[in-house]
Design a protein that fits this description.
Blueprint (H helix, E strand, L loop, with lengths): L1 H24 L3 E2 L14 E7 L6 H9 L6 E8 L5 H11 L3 E6 L8 H11 L5 E5 L3 E3 L3 H11 L4 E5 L1 E2 L4 H18 L19 E4 H6 L12 H11 L4 E5 L4 E3 L5 H9 L10 H16 L1 H8 L2 H20 L13 H22 L1 E4 L2 E4 H11 L1
Parallel strand pairs: 1-10, 2-3, 2-5, 3-4, 7-10, 8-11
Antiparallel strand pairs: 5-9, 6-11, 7-9, 12-13
Helix pairs in contact: 1-12, 2-3, 6-13, 9-13, 10-13, 11-12
Length: 385
């Protein structure tokens, strides 16, 4: 009887979640479909990129940023204590591109995460109407900024997020990323960011385009100085401050090789997963139980212990998962990713648990070889809530 109830609930959950995500996902437009409607004189834009030891992907990404066709923009790279060849690459590119300016940071002030301080430093060294915060490994198609500004101005937006197309040589990692994206989209509800009275918001490090005045009303990066999830929090603060926001899919326009393999994905999320739960162990337990009950356990549990009716319901649930992973808007998913959902769920549970254990055990986090104490992280987190 309990297994029958469980199988019914699991099936209904996935049917509802799939309809919810697919229907609402179609409410988000694609950047590729936006027409250039920017009238001259064009508003000024400064692209601010924080870098630290980014020699692997920096050159190609920065060349793409410096070759955009928008008529009124500059690029400001803040080199945050790099110890590899990042500085050398930046000097070489600066000699080629007049619009590129470089600022070097030698020390990190107390009370700041390195990236957040670097982005805030970039803001202080600029006076443009709009700021685009992006990362050092993002590839831009030539017309990305022109289309983004056209959309931003036509909608009178204070904040525009473009969700990048995630590329990877690893099909297994892509399937895990699909599970991660599904969970993130369900949590953040990005399609609702445009609704004035909704609390929904969405920001990504790859593309946060912000009107300067809105950024200042939200408190700048000083308000989120110690948040590892600065991109998400910046979006939330702008929305809370009354800013008008929207989201676009960046498929074919904005690309990011986020991680190369599953191991890198795990290590990369380890530093900020606990912050997503506000450093609260009870919230971590809730996240783990929810993922376990509705993503990881239903299929193996029912296939092993269930009767024929219960197994049929679980097969229907698996079919629904396949459809969701395949047809999820903006994801470029494959149908077989649905069969990898259990594996993806296990990986994410592992990240949740290990991130909390390591952060608590170490008394803080290491990010780019700099240590930040948990006491300080929790203190600043309480201020931001």
């Amino acid at each position: 009887m309990l297994l029958e109830i469980y199988s019914i609930l699991a099936l209904l959950y996935w049917v509802f979640l799939s309809l919810y995500l697919i229907v609402n996902g179609h409410k988000i437009n694609y950047l590729s479909s936006i027409q250039n409607t920017v009238n001259k004189p064009t508003p000024s834009v400064i692209i601010i990129i924080a870098v630290r030891n980014e020699e692997y992907a920096l050159r190609e990404a920065l060349i793409s940023v410096c070759n955009l066709d928008y008529s009124n923009y500059k690029v400001l790279v803040v080199n945050d204590r790099s110890t590899d060849n990042t500085g050398k690459i930046l000097k070489e590119l600066q000699a080629t591109f007049e619009k590129l300016t470089i600022i070097n940071i030698e020390t990190l002030p107390t009370g700041w995460l390195g990236k957040n301080h670097a982005l805030y430093t970039g803001y202080n060294f600029s006076d443009e109407d709009y700021m685009l915060f992006t990362d050092a490994d993002v590839l831009f198609k030539k017309d990305v900024l022109t289309k983004a500004m056209s959309f931003c101005l036509s909608k009178d937006l204070d904040h525009l997020t473009v969700l990048p197309e995630i590329i990877s040589p690893s099909p297994i990692l892509k399937s895990v990323l699909s599970t991660f994206v599904i969970m993130l989209m369900a949590l953040q509800r990005p399609w609702a960011a445009k609704i004035k009275n909704s609390k929904a918001s969405m920001g990504v490090g790859a593309f946060n385009l912000v009107k300067r005045k809105a950024y200042e009303r939200a408190g700048t990066h000083k308000a989120i100085a110690m948040r590892p999830d600065d991109d998400l929090k910046l979006a939330a603060y702008i929305k809370t401050a009354g800013g008008k926001a929207d989201i676009l899919y960046g498929q074919g326009e904005l690309q990011l090789e986020w991680y190369i393999n599953v191991k890198e994905f795990i290590n990369g999320l380890m530093k900020n997963a606990f912050s997503g739960f506000d450093y609260n162990v009870l919230k971590v337990i809730g996240g783990v139980l929810g993922t376990l009950l509705f993503l990881v356990l239903p299929i193996p549990l029912i296939l092993i212990f269930g009767n024929s009716l219960e197994r049929n319901m679980i097969f229907c649930m698996l079919l629904v998962q396949v459809i969701l992973y395949w047809k999820m808007p903006g994801s470029n998913g494959k149908w077989w990713y649905g069969f990898m959902s259990i594996y993806g769920g296990i990986i994410i549970i592992y990240i949740f648990i290990r991130s909390a254990i390591i952060t608590i055990g170490n008394g803080g986090i290491y990010w780019k070889k700099t240590f930040y104490s948990l006491a300080e992280l929790r203190k600043t987190n309480k201020k931001s809530l």
